[in-house]
Amino acid sequence: MKLKRLYAEEIALHVTSLSQSEVEQLIEKPKFEEQGDLAFPCFSLAKILKKSPQAIALELANKIQHPLFETVVANGPYVNSFLNKQTVSKEILETILMEDKNYGFVQMGEGKNIVIDFSSPNIAKPFSMGHLRSTVIGNAISTIAQKCGYTVKKINHLGDWGTQFGKLIVAYKKWGNASNVKENPIEELLALYVKFHTEAESNPSLEDEARSWFLKLEEGNEEALALWKWFRDESLKEFFKIYELLDVTFDSYQGEAFYNDKMDRTIEQLTILQLLTESEGAEVVDLTEENLPPCLIKKSDGATLYATRDLTAAVYRYENYNFEQAIYVVGHEQSLHFKQVFLVLEKMGYSWAKGLKHIPFGFILKDGKKMSTRKGKVVLLEEVITEAIALAKLSIATKNPDLENKEEVAKMVGVGAIIFHDLKNERQNNVEFSLNDMLRFEGTTGPYVQYTHARACSILEKAKYNEKSLNVDGLTDSHSWFVLKRLMEFPVVIEKSFSQHEPSQIAKYLIDVSQEFNKYYAHVKVLTDDHLLESRLALVKAVTIVLKEGLRLLGIKAPDKM
Ligand code: ARG
Q: Do the interacting molecules here have an ipTM over 0.85?
């Protein structure tokens, strides 16, 4: 039910100088609940009509009559309407119960494709906190995009190519050993990489060796390829452990290496378009006019770069997925890189480059400092997640010792806590990492929302709830009304969250719904046997539907019991 649209329609009947959609854009929520449910400010009309907004508000308020709006009043320069609680609540409950999981579906993306590049860790390096954020945010945006009707391609653009592989090959051949790599791939490969850099400080010829091994790799040398493939496979096995814990999947793992044989075409095109210039032996695209440093395409030794592969990948993706939007969920430290890549594509004449978007995010902090996985300070992410699950299990064991599937629920709660803690913050902000905070069952946490959902489920179970026999009437008391108003907002929140690529909109909304429902539950005896019992049960059911679906959009499971 699009109440805002309906209100706009009614107002537009009496207004000639604004279109219905202009009116709709102006409609807002009154500052205080007691001022009404929808407000139309008359300032723009006042400018056009050269009358005071107060006078216009009075006139309009008198004219509007519709069964869904109980009263319409002028409040200074605003026309405020109070919805007819009886009719609206009945309708909204029936809609949510009928649409169930589909409630909140938005049609904006139907028939359109969107490519989402996220997670994208680097082979032979630890899965960093930044990759965790990218994974969690990217996965949520993917699910939200699907809810908005888009066909989504989830791409893990693995960092599996580049000069670092030359270094790794040299280091492995000099100091490495196969069984260590097999046992502990990431740690061992990282140690080799670090050793390479320490040794290279006193022995710069190592750098030359590494360059020549990377060139061999780019040319398809068998030994180089075999080692590369092995490092890649072993690292991927480690990454999959994390994806399994987070329950995240991808449609493609075509990383940087995939574009190795496709880059010639990019370079050729750049050459034909006369976009390449030489700078200190390297080939670059000059971006002085745009006030940016040049975009490096080819090094003096002929090796390609990160940007060359991203240019090639964008073209490949457009040709294969015909996207309307292609988004890159990558930390803000890469903003310059994406600006350069997008600009070069525009210079190449690709009009679809407008649809490319970098979706940046902030750091994860520990005690105010950036949490790093570099050098010795490796925080093994897998351990962090396992610890969250163990802590969740402890608190479940004290809260609900008889719970049957404790292990499974602990995983849902522990992982959910980590994801929610990340997503409740606007993505550009830094996030302070604290397992204790994120696992609390009260406050603005994932477990709080999950717990609210489970509590609502248990009310339904007690009542032997049977949806088919429900006879839903309207609910007009204020506690129900506040919950219902929140539930009504779900589709709008989903749409906003998608257009801003901001899952925090949904996370915050779920906290609101939970708080409103818990207030309701504290004030209203749901299971009283009177003529409104079934309507109240419908409300409780509607809350479970919205909480569960909202959590799903964030990549979090909602157990029925916990
Ligand atoms: N592997 C890169 C990193 O860890 C992120 C890749 C992001 N995606 C892209 N198409 N550049 O920094």
A: yes
